[in-house]
Write a structure and sequence with these properties.
Helix content is 74%, strand content 0%. It is built from 17 helices and no strands.
């Protein structure tokens, strides 16, 4: 039986909480390197701090997917319990993490920051995954493209706001500098406001969306009673995963490695290349930190604009590949730019790659799997996002030393990686399979 069409309002409500979650994720992405640099991290070790977020993702998201496939709480639903738990933990941690430097009398600031980073990414991953699953559960094939487009729009809108918060707070007069080892108020208040928005958005989705009952879910997904009782372990699911899981995974390897280096090294790169400083207590270093948020916001705007162009491509793979290629050129161009405003062009084009990475892999992959294992397969598919980031984090310090220690060179490495990803797109098969 085909799932019924949903109104635009219902499609919007399913993903609205993602707006708040993405603000939290954007604050983490744009400010983690800044926070740990302020706490005293060496640039050559900076990538190691970024191992924790994807490591938590690769552990948490398959567990959430598997558990939520088996869950049904009558008054709440199948996916929403995990959304609520993850969100409330994220809110608590967002209020603690930016104050890491203030707790030095009681615990080492770097240790406290690492613990909070681990908890923050664990909770964000736990909160993020249910939105992708609810689209897979509740939206029919005809509307799935629209549903993921709405989710992509809310993702970029949330990112835009999260990235700009420190810049806006500095502009209205909140201090953007602090004593050595202390995070500036502009960053602290950004995390506080982000936490408040997160709870409001998640509660809105929780109260406005009613998930399918188990009976409805089984009917619409063609799952029989005998299939429901059949238990499959993770190894078996991986062995029988559709070919798209592995071919898209190769493209994801190159794509997410690139963006991991963007998040890790953009702050240091523009501090050196534009402001000419590496001194963490200097106004220039902290100004560069704010400008990272502005550049990432420009990237989000580029992503929104390009997301409207992508559906015009008759060949989905051509659109995907071209997006990654243009993003790679954007990264490489940062090597030659020493003006903060000229970087807008680079990051706008980088947004093209981000738009494709948000939409294309999930649109292709969710059409290749059945509803019975949708949650666990999406959790496992998240490994194609997390594993490349772990590899990038492990290799980052060594690559930085090999290429001379200039952090802007790591953005060129990111560009080369995206171009390799663009070439890999054409091995993906879009034929529908069942798993």
């Amino acid at each position: 039986m085909n799932k019924p069409d949903l109104s635009f309002a219902k499609l919007f409500n399913i993903s609205f909480g993602f707006f708040g979650v993405q603000i939290a994720y954007a604050l983490q992405s744009a400010n983690i390197s800044r926070i740990f640099s302020t706490l005293g991290a060496d640039p050559h070790n900076l990538s190691y701090f970024w191992i924790l977020p994807p490591l938590m993702g690769i552990i948490v998201q398959p567990i959430v997917g598997w558990a939520s496939d088996k869950t049904w709480i009558k008054s709440i639903g199948r996916r929403k319990p995990y959304l609520l738990i993850g969100s409330f933990v994220a809110i608590l941690v967002m209020c603690l993490l930016p104050n890491a430097g203030s707790y030095q009398k009681y615990i080492d600031a770097m240790t406290f920051g690492l613990i909070m980073l681990m908890l923050l990414d664990t909770s964000i991953n736990m909160a993020m995954q249910p939105f992708k699953m609810m689209v897979g559960d509740m939206v029919n094939e005809k509307q799935k493209g629209l549903a993921y487009s709405i989710q992509s729009f809310l993702c970029n809108a949330g990112s835009l706001i999260g990235y700009l918060f420190p810049f806006i707070f500095t502009w209205i007069g909140i201090s953007n500098t602090a004593p050595e080892g202390i995070i500036p108020d502009s960053v602290i208040y950004s995390f506080y406001i982000g936490a408040a928005i997160l709870i409001l958005c998640v509660l809105y989705t929780s109260f406005s969306v009613k998930e399918m009952t188990p009976e409805e879910f089984n009917t619409y997904h063609g799952i029989t009673e005998s299939e429901n009782k059949k238990s499959e372990n993770v190894i078996s699911l991986l062995i029988h995963a559709p070919k798209q899981f592995w071919t898209i995974g190769l493209v994801q390897l190159f794509s997410w490695l690139a963006f991991m280096y963007m998040w890790t090294y953009t702050h240091g790169a523009i501090a050196e290349n534009v402001w000419g400083t590496t001194e963490t207590t200097s106004e220039g270093f902290q100004a560069a930190g704010n400008w990272v948020g502005v550049l990432f916001a420009v990237q989000a705007i580029g992503s929104v604009c390009w997301a409207m162009v992508l559906p015009l491509f008759k060949s989905r793979k051509l659109g995907y590949s071209l997006s990654l290629l243009l993003g790679g050129i954007g990264f490489i161009s940062t090597l030659f730019i020493h003006n903060q405003y000229a970087l807008f062009a680079s990051y706008f084009v980088i947004g093209f790659a981000w738009a494709a990475m948000l939409a294309m892999p999930f649109a292709i992959f969710t059409n290749s799997v059945s509803g019975k294992n949708m949650g666990i397969y999406l959790g496992l598919f998240n490994g194609t996002i997390c594993l490349p980031q772990i590899i990038a984090a492990i290799l980052g310090g060594g690559i930085l030393k090999m290429i001379g220690g200039a952090q802007v060179s790591m953005l060129a490495v990111a560009g080369i990686s995206l171009i390799l990803g663009a070439c890999s797109v054409f091995i993906i098969s879009e034929k529908k399979t069942n798993s």
